[in-house]
Amino acid sequence: MPMDVILVVWFSVCTARAVMGFGMDPDLQMDIITELDLVNTTLGVTQVSGLHNASKAFLFQDVEREIHAAPHVSEKLIQLFRNKSEFTFLATVQQKPSTSGVILSIRELENSYFELESSGLRDEIRYHYTHKGKPRTEALPYRMADGRWHKVALSVSASHLLLHIDCNRIYERVIDTPETNLPPGSNLWLGQRNQKHGLFKGIIQDGKIIFMPNGYITQCPNLNRTCPTCSDFLSLVQGIMDLQELLAKMTAKLNYAETRLSQLENCHCEKTCQVSGLLYRDQDSWVDGDHCRNCTCKSGAVECRRMSCPPLNCSPDSLPVHVAGQCCKVCRPKCIYGGKVLAEGQRILTKSCRECRGGVLVKITEACPPLNCSDKDHILPENQCCSVCRGHNFCAEGPKCGENSECKNWNTKATCECKNGYISVQGDSAYCEDIDECAAKMHYCRANTVCVNLPGLYRCDCVPGYIRVDDFSCTAFCEEGCRYGGTCVAPNKCVCPSGFTGSHCEKDIDECALRTHTCWNDSACINLAGGFDCLCPSGPSCSGDCPHEGGLKRNGQVWTLKEDRCSVCSCKDGKIFCRRTACDCQNPSVDLFCCPECDTRVTSQCLDQNGHKLYRSGDNWTHSCQQCRCLEGEVDCWPLTCPRLSCEYTAILEGECCPRCVSDPCLADNIVYDIRETCLDSYGVSRLSGSVWTLAGSPCTTCKCKNGSVCCSVDLECLHNN
Fold first, then answer.
1. What are the transmembrane regions (predicted)?
2. What is the CA angle 618-605-36, rounded to 5?
């Protein structure tokens, strides 16, 4: 469908939505405070006055508590979230200054499916969620732990995240699509992450989850929308994709022949073939009598195909059958007995055994051999007169299968079936020929590879300059590596970190020569590895003073940073040096906020996320790709800082926390789909970016359009079941 048609339909939906207005379906919301029955909860929470008197507000105290949903409420929540792509969490909160805590958490064991956390230690709001089984965190810098009332609304629409604070749009981001199909056993916690961690300190009022587009409007009715949400538009795109799927099926037969075509390379020299002691020139052909095949020498390789048999137009009183000594089937008179049709050589057991010969049922007088099994294990094979024992090997005496097919035993007969990677010739599975997966585009070779056809299978070879990642994909290779933390993004091409350059990031950017240094007055710039230094040997301006925040600090002056009371800075010879305040744990007036390691109180210790290890105040550790710290009995965790990558596609490998650059979009997990970038499927139909379809002729292969690249994967469980 043309893009202008999509935009017209989208505008029509916009207009219709704007006219309809907004209603609140009670079945599409959950009042968390009411569902948790906080009025009758005494341990850890107390009802207090809120921002307004229209609803109840509760103070969450700094004590051990367990505020979570009952099983029937959790089940209701699981059903509300099922298959939903749009939801909003609303709350009115007043958080104790400089504290950290979780406002709402929906989790199953260690997996967070929705968690809103406010950190007063780092002045940021964190949204924790799960994407394809992996934890994700969005850190949104904002100071909400300031002792004031705030209205917070976090809205998710497919991959679109929106944060409103006090009815102001603070952040709008594109994220990985969160999982909303919550597993059994998921539970809702209010004011904490679990029994021991993330205790919120302050007041919560009007806690709700709204399952409708732009639910923040229920909190801020003056904010109205004029266009559909991301999820609305994706639903429209999905409808277009469904139409494309229908179009693909209608054109499948027209394009089927094209998938079988292949193009041979032009040869500039003649190559011969040697078979059974005979030498054949290029393009020579001969008949392989043993296997009923026509063979040709092509560029030094022998290609054989089953002899092409002419179509048989047998008369109504005959059937095509195989005859010994002949490659193609021939027409032979058929026999009819009691409405059953028999071909030449087939038998039927009536009062006696009879065989079809020349259109006549001839009586067979030969006796059946004795069987060494009980009567209940006797089985009569198809079109035979003598019974055999159950489990009889029909292949030992059954059809003659060609070299690319194999015999398969059934209960009452044996049949020939083509091996994997082969297809029957004219519908006869006794004779099969190789499928050229490369020419037919039935392979899974991804970017930076070349498909090579092999008998019964194929291989994905890496193009020069790339090394293998798995059987289907390759990644760039830098022979000398990328030094100082650089990333290989193309063959022998590195993206270097700040301060380094060169093909392998091996070169001291010279900030002094480039005049990108910050040396003051008459001080001299000295280039260093990965940086620079300033020296002031002499001169009238060599006072050693330091510029700082629009002012001047004298040489030798010491001061405390306004934004960090735990850091002490000093000016020395024109340069500013900052360090953490030295901690003297023997001093009774030591600042425990800056020196948590001096805090020996039992109440200041923290349990880790698994509840097994005890940490002292000030200890740091890593958990689930997050940096965690214990401070006065409170655990605060934030995402690990990863280096910024300038490449187009990135992926997080198994067991790692930070993304790496990848050149193949099929390996990337950070793609933002652009519906203007389309793909051609195996039917020749244009697919929008983000669309998914099943590969023609391979029901276990799923393909997806990723911004112009077709990425296919095989469902191993489907292969096993089929």
1. none
2. 115
Tokens at 387, concatenated: 């019974």
Cα–Cα distance measured from residue 67 to residue 193, given in angstroms and rounded to the nearest whole number: 10
Return the amino acid letter for 691: S
Could you tell me if 605 and 618 are in contact, meaning their C-beta atoms sit under 8 angstroms apart?
Answer: no
Which residues have a Cβ under 8 Å from the Cβ of 113 and sit 6 or more positions away?
81, 106, 107, 129, 130, 178, 179, 180, 182, 186
**Which amino acid does the sequence have at 167?**
C
The 3 state secondary structure assigned to 30-77 is: EEHHHHCCHHHCCCCEEEECCCCCCCCEEEECCCCCCCECCHHHHHHH
The answer to whether the beta carbons of residues 477 and 452 sit under 8 Å apart is no
pLDDT in tens, 439-479: 888 888 888 899 999 888 888 999 888 888 888 888 888 88
| CA 475 – CA 663 distance, rounded (Å) | 7
Strand (E) or helix (H) holding 387:
none
How many residues belong to the chain? 722
| Mean pLDDT within 717-721 | 80
Euclidean distance between CA atoms 519 and 533, whole angstroms: 8
Tokens standing for 280? Answer: 């054949």
Place of tokens 């089929």: 722
* Residue closest to 199 by CA, chosen among 60, 38, 36, 40: 60
For 231-374, list the strands marked E by DSSP.
273-275, 278-280, 285-288, 293-298, 301-306, 318-321, 330-333, 335-337, 340-342, 347-349, 353-357, 360-364
658: tokens are 């930070």
- Both tokens of 616, joined, read 């002292």
| Cβ atoms < 10 Å from Cβ of 255 | 15
CB 73 within 8 A of CB 188: yes
Q: What residues contact 529, with CB distance under 8 A and at least 6 apart? A: 508
Contact predicate 701/713, CB 8 Å = yes
